[in-house]
Prior knowledge:
Chain A is α/β, with parallel strands linked by helices. Chain A is built from 4 helices and 5 strands, in the order E-H-E-H-E-H-E-H-E. The mean pLDDT of chain B is 92.
Amino acid sequence: MWAEDSETKVLYVQTHGVQDPGRCATPFFLAAAAAAMEFEVMIYFTMYGPSLLRKDVVDKIGPKGDQGQPLRYFIEQASGLGVRLLVCQPSLDLNDLVLEDLIEGVEMIGGAAFNDLAVSADAVISF
Amino acid sequence: MSESAAPVADQVLDCTGLACPLPVVKTAQAIKNLASGQLLELIATDAGVEPDMRAWSGRTGNELVGITKQGDVFHVLIRSK
Lengths: 127, 81
């Protein structure tokens, strides 16, 4: 899934969800900075992570509650720079979600694809 | 008449008051609109901007011409690759 010509590849893994707003935005900050450095970047949302991508959540939570920007701002900053957002089916099930509940552009992968991305990345960073 | 020692930038990007990662993100976007060899001046107050811009320029191949600090304000001069 990585582009063959990308020099540096970084895979972030987000395991925290809506119950932990203080942990919701940093992976998007770092992914945006990595993309600005011309790295190829993906964020894989597993465990509670997919709940951050819900259409009905992204405008309602932010890392500092009512202060500052909502989560959507940080997601769009990253995706606007080419960061790809990935989920897997078991994690959607865990959060009682289907892909249609999530914002546009989220891609479905599975465990094999995740592991393939991980071993071929230059860095895997897990939150 | 005194001559300025610093080269004049082709574009000034004011990121005063913006926090990480916005200075890096906006610099990356701005540099794409410059021709090779043109100069971008980033003005930023994020305390981490110096190590950030050194890392960014090293990775992207855009040349970091210099960083000066006046009070809490950083002026970063970058030459587009």
